[in-house]
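Most newcomers find our protein records easier to grasp once they have seen one. Read left to right, the backbone structure tokens trace the chain's path through space. Once this layout is familiar, the rest of the handout is easier to follow. The record below serves as our worked example for the rest of this section:


***
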Amino acid sequence: MSDRHSTYRSILIGLVGGAAGTLAMGQYWTRVAPVVEGSSEGEDGGGQQQKPKPDQHSIAPLGQVHEPGESSTAALGRLAYEGVAGHAPGKQTRAALSEVVHWGMGAVSGGLYGALAGRGNPVKGAAFGVGLWALIDEGLVPLLGLQDGPAGSPARGHANRLGAHVAYGLGLGLTVLLLDAALPED
């Protein structure tokens, strides 16, 4: 098999692995994050929803672009929509755009993993997930104003995002390992 064909194969397997990792990340948020958090996010302990607070911890040189209480994926989806349509999306469209951005980032990151790592390995995948958390989630996203800076979230929030990225990386690495072994190289 040519090196070029091998690279394309690795990227394709990584894209699929990225989708599997995104699924694993979702399971983390559903099953583990509430335990780490201790109570539902956005509640005051009495079951009452708190109003989102304006960003007071921005580290973005060009300013905050996310709305209070808006996730980074929702903000990116909203901004793209506004850039194309010229107006803000409705509530259902915002939710759908957030999911598209989330799954797209997961798949594309998996493709990058495939290109860089070639062979799958859950430990390498977990390390890749930690790298994404540190560089993208804790670094680039706040610098772009898509979420609050590091001081804007309690330690449990950072721990949960790290845990979610480790789950992503484990799912990615394991899927790439299994697909690489199952699919013939020609």
